[in-house]
Task: structure prediction
Amino acid sequence: MNKKKELVMSGIRPTGFLHLGNYFGAVRNYVRMQEEYECYFMVADLHSLTTHPDTKELKTNVHRVLSENIACGLDPDKVALYCQSHIYETSELYLYLNMLAYQGELEKTTTFKDKVRQQPDNVNAGLLTYPVLQTADIILHRAKYVPVGKDQEQHLEMARNFVKRFNYRYGEVFPEPIAFNFGEELIKVPSLDGAGKMSKSENQYATLYLSDDDDLIRKKVMKAKTDSGPAEKNSQKPDYIENIFLLMKLVSTSDTINKFEDDFNNCTIRYGDMKKQLAEDMVQFIAPIRQKADAIRNDEKYLKEVMEKGAEKARKSARATMELVREAIGLNYY
Ligand code: ADP
Result:
């Protein structure tokens, strides 16, 4: 008999171009997990409405996220790749979970506080309850593992709290979901200017997108902040230099990394050379993904089929969960 596969769920907002952070924090693990787990990966279009109420670009962005995920190696025949808004059960579960989430804890969430600073004129309730909707997305499939980057750690902790409360009040329906990176620390890909993380909608010149052309990649990398080099042997790296090494570790060979580590420790490092090497390795890494994604994005018929197939799989799992949920809560009157 086949062993039942463990369940995995994650999502990416269609708020712009996918970048290296999305790749190394999330998509790379989606691809690695697709063989051995039962995977649900969604384009989080409803989440994007909390920060991007103008929907003119939404369709293009949804197509872009789907294409880029597939170009990175995700196989829509192996996983459920779907759009959040196609699964209506999410909204029902979100409603129930909202009764278990408290104003105080939501207001304390780091991402909420950041967003309040970024968009003071649009502090909507959806922004406040973002972690609740995210929990609904995950537990709708009773998923256990959630491949995400480091910025999502707090949201996952909140998800576990909501699950514990639900299970305590209504009976054990859900497993407690955990952020997943194959047992390693969660990843944060820093932005090229050393200030914060690479991101879809902020910091665009300091973020490397999977759609950037070769010259733009080179320009962005060459602009990364450096200095005149260490004055003492084996000294500690400043944050912005550490970041360049970190980016190199993502795409360059170990020989290359070791060479520049040695040069740094001997005070002979030339950051111009290091950035040139990093830029070339980035180009090698990004170009094939960009080319594949462009081809997929132009095939709207194929993307429609992917979305339909994905939604069908996701709905089946969502419906089964919601029967258990309604029963557990006591919404069964005949
Ligand atoms: P963004 O912040 O770029 O809008 P999302 O919120 O849609 O991205 O996040 C999609 C996934 O990508 C999440 O799993 C998130 O943790 C991951 N992610 C986003 N930025 C980074 C980054 N700079 N480093 C690592 N992972 C990241």
Notes: The chain has a mean pLDDT of 96.
